Each structure stands twice: as structure tokens, then as C-alpha cells.
Amino acid sequence: MMRLRDLMARELRLRGKADRTVKAYVDNMRLLVQRTGKHPAHLSEDDLKTYLDGLRTVRKVAPPTLAQHLAAMRFFFRHVVRRDFPILGEARPRRRRKLPTILSVGEVHALLHALRVPRFFTLGATLYGCGLRRSEGLALEADAIDWQRAMLHVRDSKGGLDRLVPIPPRLQEILDSHRRQEGISSGRLFLSRLAPECDLSPDTVGRALHAAALAAGIDKPVTAHSLRHAYATHLLERGVSLRLIQQFLGHRHLETTAIYTHLTAAVMHRAHEALQQMTAGL
Q1: Distance between CA atoms of 53 and 48, rounded to whole angstroms?
Q2: CATH for 105-271?
Q3: Would residue 60 show up in a list of annotated catalytic residues for this protein?
Q4: Which of 17, 74, 155, 225 is flagged as catalytic?
Q5: List 69, 133, 134, 229, catalytic entry
Q6: Is 25 annotated in the active site?
Q7: 224-237 and 105-113 helices cross at what angle (nearest 10)?
Q8: Residuewise pLDDT in 10s, the chain (282 residues)
Q9: Catalytic: 225?
């Protein structure tokens, strides 16, 4: 008979879940079994309540992490062992929607030029110039670039979506130079120098950006996602429509993209001017 983790992985794949989701859900269930010391067939409702409360109060996991644990448990008990636990439908992580810190155009340029390793500079420029998630940038392959149309084909991104995004001329030059210097004709664009058969590590990219921020004198928190936030905000400030930015970012819902209307200096300035006109005669 198949092991429970293999059964779970199979059920997830059959429902079209991405490989990273399959791994995350299986890992979360493995942690549940390890930490409770009980086989899933022997877990009680109280066991699950104690475990979830421990994640929140003792381990202090972030709300998205707690939500992922809950999603994994719901899937496992619903589709793998067919057990019903009311708490899995009732538990709700407390969510706080924090506004991201936005880098100015000057700060982005300073950050990228502080990346002394050429492949890190090229990756960072691509994340910013095309608004990519870190995972999307690391997964880019040479054939994703349409040089004639100046478009980048982002494949199998979050939610299994594909999308096309424009490549600005300067980024085309940077990517072409990177391709020639690295001798890349096919396959991944960003590989590890220490292990050429492997992609760059996400953690390595994060450390490189952190070091570059320090070198550039940027005292804001900087991650790879900061470049994506900056991309969206800077486009909106320059009059690009929110709907088009939504398509470029690959957001399913416009409400997700609308967060950037709170972050753009130009938009806020126009709002203040409008409010001044509206209330001038009071």
C-alpha cells in the first residue's frame, strides 16, 4: 500500500496543484505527525486544536504560514483519510495587510548597481524591469525572450498562469549581454556558478540584495519582492492603467493590484489637490 504522504501527493497532483504546493502541504503534514507524535488515524479534534494554538502562540508563525498549515490539514483529512474535524473549517488566521515599503527609482538604480556580480545584476534588473516574482526570475529560460517583439513569456507562474510582459530596451541589452557572456543558447538564464547544473538559490539572491542595500546606503528593508513592488508603483505613477499593471503582474483580481494606489506619490498628490478643491469653499 502507498504511504500516506505519497497518497497525499498523488491527490494534490490530480487536482492540478503546483509542485511547490505539493511539497509544502506534504511537509506541513509531516511536521504535524512529528510534533504530535501520533499517526493521523489517531489524532483527535483536541489534538488539532492544541497543535494549531501552538503554531500561533508558541511558534508564532506568520498568518500566511498558519493559513498554509490549515489548508494542508483540510486537504489531507478531506481527501486522503476522509475524516471530518469541525475546527479545520472554523479556524481563521488573523490577517494583517501591511503596505509594502517602496523604493524610489533612484534607490532601485543604486541597489542594482551595488550588485557587483553580473548575474545578480542581470537578475535584479529583470525582476524590476519586468515586475517578476523571484521564483519567476529564477525559472526563466532563454526561449522565454521574444527578441523581435521585445516581450517576455512568463510560464506557469503563481496559480498556473502564463503571461506576456514587455521588455524595456535597456533590459534587452542587459539580457543579451548576459546571454553572450554566459554562453547561454538554451535552458535556464540564471544558474549557480558553484553548481552550474543548478538554479541560483533564492536565499543566495536574498543575501546579495541585502548586501547591496547596505552598500548603497538604503535603510529600507529590501527583498527581491521589493523590486516587483517598485515596478508596479513606478508604472502607476507614470500613468499606466491599473488594469494593464494587473496583467503585467499576473494578478487574478484587480483588488490585489489596487494596493499600489496607496503607495504612489503622484496619485496621492492628485488626491490631495482634488480634496483641496472640494473643500476650499467650506
Answers
A1: 8
A2: 1.10.443.10
A3: no
A4: 225
A5: 133
A6: no
A7: 150
A8: 468 889 999 999 998 888 888 999 999 999 999 999 998 888 999 999 999 999 988 998 888 899 999 999 999 999 999 999 999 988 888 776 677 888 999 999 999 999 999 999 999 999 999 999 999 999 999 999 999 999 999 987 777 788 999 999 999 999 999 999 988 888 899 988 777 677 788 999 999 999 999 999 999 999 999 999 999 999 988 888 889 999 999 888 888 888 887 777 666 666 667 667 755 766
A9: yes
Angle, helices 19-36 vs 4-14, to 10°: value is: 150
Q: ∠ CA 170-175-177 to the nearest 5 degrees?
A: 95
> Where do we find the cell 533612484?
106
Q: Does domain 4-90 have CATH number 1.10.260.40?
A: no
Taking the whole predicted model, whether its pTM rises above 0.85 is answered as: no
In which residue ranges of the chain is CATH 1.10.150.130 found? 4-90
- Which position among 30, 158, 163, 188 bears the catalytic label? 158
The catalytically annotated residue of 228, 229, 231, 234 is 228
Is-catalytic flag, 39? no
Region for 52 from its dihedrals, namely left if φ exceeds 0, alpha if ψ lies in -120 to 50, beta otherwise: alpha
Residue given cell 524610489 in the structure block: 104
Residue range(s) of every CATH 1.10.443.10 domain in the chain:
105-271
